[in-house]
Amino acid sequence: MAYRVLLATALVALFAGLAKTAPDRVCPVDVVQDASSPLPLTDVCIPEGYTDIPMDYFDDFSWREFVAMVWPAANGKRGVADMSKGFAAPGPRVFETFKSLWEVFHNDGSAPRAFSQYEPAGVNACNVPTGFGDVVLASKSGIDDIGQAGVGELVGPLVAQNGKYVRYQTLYNQIAYDFIVKNKFYLRSNLPAVPSPRPELPVIQFPMGSAAIKAAWLDMDGFSDAQKARVYTRLAVVKDPETGKCSKISVGLMGLHIVVKTPSRPQWIWSSFEQVDAIPPKQFGGTGQFFFSDGDRRKPMPAENPLALVPLAKQPVKPFNLSRDIMMPIHPKTELMSLVYQRLLHKSPWEFYQIATTQWPRLEGNQAAPVPATQGGEMTTTFPGAGATSAFANVTLETFDQSRPQLGCMSCHNQARMTVDFMWSVLDHAYPAKIAPAKSAVAH
Ligand code: HEC
Predict the structure, then answer these.
(1) 170 lines ligand 1 (CB under 6 A)
(2) Pocket of ligand 1, candidates 413, 428, 434: which has the most ligand atoms within 8 Å of its Cβ, to mutate?
(3) Which atom of ligand 1 is nearest the CA belonging to 428?
(4) Ligand 1 contacts CB of residue 401 (under 6 A)
(5) How far apart (Å, rounded) are the C-alpha atoms in residues 401 and 357?
(6) Whose Cα sits closest to atom 36 in ligand 1?
(7) Among 83, 168, 233, 378, which has the minimal tally of Cβ within 10 Å of its Cβ?
(8) What is the pLDDT at residue 4?
(9) Is residue 175 classed exposed, middle or buried when 0-12, 13-18 and 19+ CB atoms within 10 A define those classes?
(10) Span 424-439, pLDDT tens digits
């Protein structure tokens, strides 16, 4: 008996000692794939001395973020996961309760409310009151949430097989939001100028743990029940760009960008997800139908977007086929990681999403070492790099940028690095906003 107590005491002491001497985090060589918790990793976990390309660690980080973002939100609490529920439970998701772009950047430059509150009806382009979990997909111009992102400007829209335009929505978590509001960066006059000579660090640096989301939503009208069953759908107030009329309709999540600023990667970690039935090939057990392709191989994807943003053609628009550039497929290792998480998320629509790409700033040698903030997001120092042979674009968000590595996530956002720490939306939407359609998106 005494011996047992002694042993137990010794063990407790031993573990207490271990806990004290061990570094903050011990990162296992084999990633622990886990979809059971809405608590994301605070940083990518790469074992000390790992010198290979750390794809699995970053893709696992992406999935953990995804699970955290799509977890049901705690009722009435913006940005907080409901720990008492499972991932499959109904209700607004964590990311949907973040502060959306229109809540942050008001048309008159007025200050937004606290993170926990919703902005008054007059602030959104539909003039509707909003409360917990509500989503409004609308912009005053009618095209700001329809044009895809170019280099700080809007390019052409994306049309699905049902003739409807994809809607883009940007959101910020509380850390990023509070930082913008505290510093009044929603006003252009408060964005510091970049001094000359150029400093080593961006003039604005978001705090660690900042996260920004960009979601691609599609009107579910006209798709079969079998198709819809494989998509996360919800109700949203959506503005018709033609009539300006707003209505509450069912929209489905087609794509999701998640970017997170971490202590080891102050250039943010860039994760991007797609719904698996967006384009061929047909998934095992799938419907054989696609949201952005009629499946006919004789009708390839056009090289340039055939649609103009200005003027915007009236819906329903004649759709065209999308495909993934065969030279830039999703990396096989990334696909394997997605297969594991898809199984973990079984029996929910979340099992029908996949990583298109994770991008991160690269350094040579020990991959566990943090990358200094002085390093930029140039194509040459980010994965998959200048000689990319795997995807770095999302088919529903950067549809026509799939073959140009200089237009990877980080490389494009790098042009906003010095001023706003990669956050293009802040540079574009700080009052007075300067977002405008690119020349190429205007019909002539
Ligand atoms: C060709 C340039 C370009 C590429 C490539 C690009 N983006 Fe963006 N992105 C933008 C612009 C411009 C905006 C802001 C649009 C607006 O005005 O609201 C933006 C907005 C975002 C936002 C909202 C927060 C912010 O930065 O303002 C996220 C998140 C995001 N992009 C993630 C990604 C990811 C992930 C990829 C790669 C899969 C990617 N982007 C590729 C140009 C780009």
Answers:
(1) yes
(2) 413
(3) 17
(4) yes
(5) 13
(6) 409
(7) 83
(8) 45
(9) middle
(10) 999 999 999 999 999 9
